[in-house]
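Quick log. Single chain, no ligands specified.
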Amino acid sequence: MSTVQTPPRALLSVWNKTGIVDFARGLADLGFELVSTGGTARTLTEAGLDVLHVSDLTEHPEIFDGRVKSLHPAIHGPLLARLHQKDDAAELDRLGYAPIRVVACNLYPFAAAAKQDPPLDDPALLEMIDIGGPTMVRASAKNHQHVLIATNPERYDAILNALRQAGSPEHVSIDMRRTLALEAFQHTASYDATIANELHNRIVGNPTHQESMESQRDHLPTTMLSASEQTQLLRYGENSHQAAGLYVDVTAKEGHSTLVTARVEAGKAMSYNNYSDADATLRLCRSLSTDEWPESPHACVIVKHNNPCGAALAATQQEAFEQALASDPESAFGSIICFNEIVQFETADAIGDLFVEVMMAPGYTTEAKERLMVKKNRRLLTIESPNNRLAPLERELVRKPVEGGLLVQTEEPPIIDWSKAETVTKIEPTPEQIASMKFAVRVCEQVKSNAIVMVQGTATVGIGPGQTSRVEAVRIAARRAGTRAQGSILASDAFFPFKDGLEQAADAGATSIVQPGGSIRDQEVIDEADARKISMVFTGHRLFRH
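-> predicted structure:
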């Protein structure tokens, strides 16, 4: 058999059969002999196409219910033969194998199977670990000089057009071949990362709330892999000279709506900064969406430049918004706002014409949406959640890129054992003050360090974010709180290194303080609190956010 005289072959073996019949028909019209496997072969045959089954080519039946079908020299020889080298071409002739010039292959849907959460040894999961497919894709991509590999059905038309224009497979441009090969390797890399991450979650497990920090370390992956797909290109990044895109995690569980899968209901396209700020807003709103405050189930969070400028829990949604806005109405201009329940008309009407970049919620009533959309270009995002309420923030692994690598850590709402929190002053905080402390530290954990948060009840009245001096953070929070600082509860994300921060808090009117403690000058700070008749609680739990 001569590699020159035989018609070119196309090997088609796909799980996602979108467009495969039209692609196969186009290849057949161009003179390709079609080779296929299992379900793909049946689909093509039923469409009236002549198909050579892989088992006829290999002269070996599929075995183990199709577990092994394409792993054979009769397939991988034609895929990997370097036809520009005389020895390879001659050996292919000697073996009687015709070259395979086009391959369409996409892989078993492991991610979709994993989202259904079957047991690890369940065939519904294990049989979705593709073996022959990735091997075939990688072989084709490696030999892209001679093989066109399509892993994405959206590429079928472009490949057919290129073949028609070129006149023969070998004349298709090397640029297209390299682009297809790159996509193929990205396809298999994402697939392998998805499997590895899922098996890590199931075999090693992710850290849980109950574990010690030492135990959490044992659950960190030894290799940090990512499987994310680009969903859209953004106009630019943080600034107009920076390129940016949005990617979605392919391993996201079914029913767990995330920011990147949120539905944009109205307004302009989201920008990079919009998504960045929206992430901080959503994270805090989820953190507050618990059952710890049953009399105040409605949460509203307002964020500007990644820092909360207002947050509140209240009996009604409108009240939560109004209290959050009152915390810092100046900074709320051009902010991101998130609610943990479906937005009602009364809330939308209270927002009125306030300039808001993005609003997020589990949904909007028809009347609320119409009222909010009166303001041109206001972006409305729907984060679909069970029971029409944002799901609480769960522990997760977060990554921060640094030069040459990544920093990885666990992240969660502050898990403070309040039964072990210590009142270190002569005056004990009241139960109402303790309740406010619990709210304050939830907010404080989401504020850039150094961070100070002043609250009344379950609403912020002043926030001092991201300062290099803790006492300056107190000054900023107190200035923003104004007269509402009188009788407030103050939360600090770390200890007071000197008593000056406490002095500023007392001068502003704070009557109770919650902080981690741990300074060598703790006693000096405690003595000042006693002198000012302020109650103070040490949690032993630092809340830095850098």
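The chain has a mean pLDDT of 90.
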